[in-house]
Amino acid sequence: MSKYDSSKIEKKWQKYWAKEKMHEAKDGTGKTNYMLLTEFPYPSGNLHIGHWYAFALPDILARYLRMNGKNVLYPIGFDAFGLPAENAAIQRNINPRDWTEQNIKFMTQQLESMGTTFDWAREVRTIDPEYYKWTQWMFLKFFEKGLAYRAKTAANWCPKDKTVLANEQVVDGCCERCGTVVEKKEIEQWMFKITNYADRLIDDLDKLDWPNATKLAQKNWIARSEGALIKFGEIEVFTTRPDTIYGVTFIAVSPARAKSLKISEAAQKYVQDNEAKTTQDFKDLKEKTGVYAGLEVEHPLTGEKIPVWVSNYVLSDVGTGALMGVPAYDERDLEFATKFKIPVKEIKLEDTKAMIALVEDKRVGRAHKTYRLHDWLLSRQRYWGVPIPMIKCATCGYQAVPEKDLPVELPKLDDFLPADDGRSPLAKATKWVKAKCPKCGKDAERETDTMDTFVDSSWYFLRYADPNNKKEFAAKDKTQAWLPVPMYIGGAEHNTMHLLYSRFFTKALHDLGYVEFDEPFLARRNHGIILGPDNQKMSKSKGNVVDPDIEVAKYGADTVRMYLAFMGPYEQGGPWNPGAINGVHRFLNRIWDFFDGKGAKVKSDESARLDYAFSNAIKKIGEDIQNQRFNTGVSELMKLLNEIESYKLETENYKLFCKLLAPYAPHLAEELWQEVLKNKNSVHLESWPTYDQASLSGREVGVVVQINGRMRDTVHVAPDISEGDLKQMVFIRAKVKPHLDGKSLEKVIYVPGKIINLVVK
Ligand code: ANZ
Ligand code: ZN
Predict the structure, then answer these.
(1) What is the spatial distance between Cα 246 and Cα 268, in angstroms, rounded to a whole number?
(2) Which of 59, 263, 526, 645 has its CA 20 to 30 A from that of 343?
């Protein structure tokens, strides 16, 4: 046999798998369906190593689940509308469609080089009219039910991108995309009524197997607070602490709220200066400023006169934009009162509930819940998006495009630049804009705004169940067969927006009767990110970017996959290590040589030990993959090879090893399986091996892992495991690795079968 040459075998097997249609998920197989979902990529131009991390590792799970009898669908598509493509196209002076399609073509090839089990037959592209027809259809269904509506709002306006942004796209007061300081602008916009779902979006989190951090991020984003609305004269405040009402010494209103009050000139000036400044959160506020409004209101219970202030620490879009200041019990109020010499009044606290009853009785207040969550503003004044399917008639107002006229196709435009006045580029498509009013038939105009791309990605997983359906977004029996998604793997950056929006869409479609479930993703896992070799975020300017194509050319896809799996706990990610990928490559070479017979030295026949080694590996690797501990699975595989290398093995043993290797290094395993072991079928159609429970019992000990004398973890291993194998296992464990990263290992003290102590500095 020759040397291990990945470039010779990988393309060959990729073609074979495609020809055999091995990854096309069939309907109605009788097996349990399993849609393993990852976040579909945005066609940015090139795959980066993060894409490999996001797609090649879940593929290990996909292959494993298939070997365990599941009918796995591992779908892929492109989230292809959006601002970045438009901006990139403007820069390069080409059309966003050409730019996007060219990227998709290139990235498809790159994705294929991973050797994943993507089902390309079900590929979904959001820019395909057959797809966005249904995005528009959903908008219309929501519109019919009042879940999509128009409203004049103070929108976040990015002066550089010349478009409106959702609150979620404003980070620390700046545009998430370009960093420009965001302004407030009053514009009529299309909105989705996601606030109708605020309670369910919080309460149903309890049903889901999601990371706590993700659940918490959603709860904080929705930010439900329960309390009361209370009227201080003409000013209604929201408070979560009605029990403190006798301690009120001032009322504070936001600049926007102050506009409709009779306030002093000085206060008016303050309002002018502060109104446009958007404060997303208290933490962004550098300094509390304010001014006396020249106004007093009456305390609803004591009749006292209470001064009214205007301040930037009151948010215009929280509660009523007005609060009761209780400096004795609220720190923010205390800070404000101290600065402006407002009295602090301590009181005997009342029973809250009693206070709400009292203000309700006196008709000056009522129990109330508020949310920080706002309705989802979906209009964008940009070209590269889904046209909002509405027609504006001078007589009849906004009318829905009739369903039979969908999709409203995005017109081709040479000049697709946004206008300075905020008019959408689609206004320039003068012929396209002209339409007949669906109600009265008179000349009318199409809506020229396009949809936020988050709309496109809020339902793509539904389409995977039935991607070629021309009559429905997906037939109900198909969505019922494939969804809700049992496992969704992606990045933590989607904790609030995408994951929240998809839940809203699913719930709305459920309520309208189109799907039977009301949560889209039963389980969710977040993966970490890959850092550069210097432990820094990869960026071109730092010159620390790892190009997966180069690594594949050098080592092959199997090595890159397996190294990424091995480098650390999946949820943590970590730095790319050129030495370590080389080590993984050597491991694959060793496997090759081992199958070539070079590795087998005849040793005394201890079949019990061999049984143990295999049973242990089958059990551990299976559990590791199932639980997405891909790294420890690799170390088990390495340990197994160490163990068995010195035995004269039967063909059955080689076969077993091949199956265990298959999810991690699919090409190499296939080559060995078919070419060396002379099997006729694919190794990927084999079942995951079963193991002999009896050979495992009583053979394991728990070794305590200490770092600088502190216990951090326990590993269960064979009592006579070699120190080398043990170290390899221990170093990559989730509870250990973070304590080693960036430190140097000074010493390892191993008490066999009991304790391993790592001394680091
Ligand atoms: C009196 C009070 C006394 C309050 C006390 C709190 C503690 P959380 O607590 O985050 O859920 N508030 C109301 N509207 C506001 C607005 N537009 N901008 C800024 N703050 C506002 O938020 C609710 C509390 O935040 C409310 O309860 C109110 O202060 C303040 F010991 O009322 B509280
Ligand atoms: Zn009309």
Answers:
(1) 29
(2) 263
Tell me, what amino acid is at 760? V
Please give the distance, rounded to the nearest whole angstrom, from the Cα atom of residue 289 to the centre of ligand 2: 50
- Length of the chain, in residues: 761
Distance (Å, rounded) from C-alpha 90 to C-alpha 296? Answer: 55
Cα 194 from chain centroid? 19
| Spatial distance between the Cα atoms of 167 and 184, rounded to a whole number of angstroms | 11
Q: Which residue has the least CA distance to atom 27 on ligand 1?
A: 239
Cis peptide, bond prior to residue 484, ω within 30 of zero: yes
- How many whole angstroms separate alpha carbon 315 and alpha carbon 319? 8
The protein residue whose alpha carbon is closest to atom 2 in ligand 1 is 241
Given the CA of residue 225, which atom of ligand 1 is nearest to it?
11
Q: What is the spatial distance between Cα 4 and Cα 14, in angstroms, rounded to a whole number?
A: 17
Q: Do strands 434-436 and 443-446 pair parallel, antiparallel, or not at all (unpaired)?
A: antiparallel
Residue 283: how many CB atoms within 10 A of its CB?
7
**Cβ of 329 below 6 Å from ligand 1:** yes
Regarding pTM above 0.85, the answer is yes
According to DSSP, the β-strands at 397-400 and 390-393 are antiparallel
| Type of residue at 503 | R
Cα–Cα distance for residue pair 362/720, rounded to 1 Å: 79
Give the three-class secondary structure for 489: strand
Contact 246, 237 (CB under 8 A): no
Amino acid (1-letter code) at residue 62: A
Residue 697: burial class (beta carbons within 10 Å; 0-12, 13-18, 19+): exposed
Interval 193-249: pLDDT, tens: 999 999 999 999 999 999 999 999 999 999 999 999 999 999 999 999 999 999 999
What residue type is assigned to position 311 of the chain? S
- Helices 630-644 and 578-595 pack at an angle, to 10 degrees, of 40
What's the pLDDT tens digit per position in 705-753?
999 999 999 998 888 888 888 998 898 888 998 898 888 899 999 998 8
The Cα-based distances of 590 to 31, 583, 598 in angstroms read 37, 10, 9
> Which ligand is located closest to the Cα atom of residue 249?
1
Name beta bridge partners: 124: 77
Q: Report the separation in Å between the CA atom of 392 and the middle of ligand 2, taken as the mean of its atom positions.
A: 8
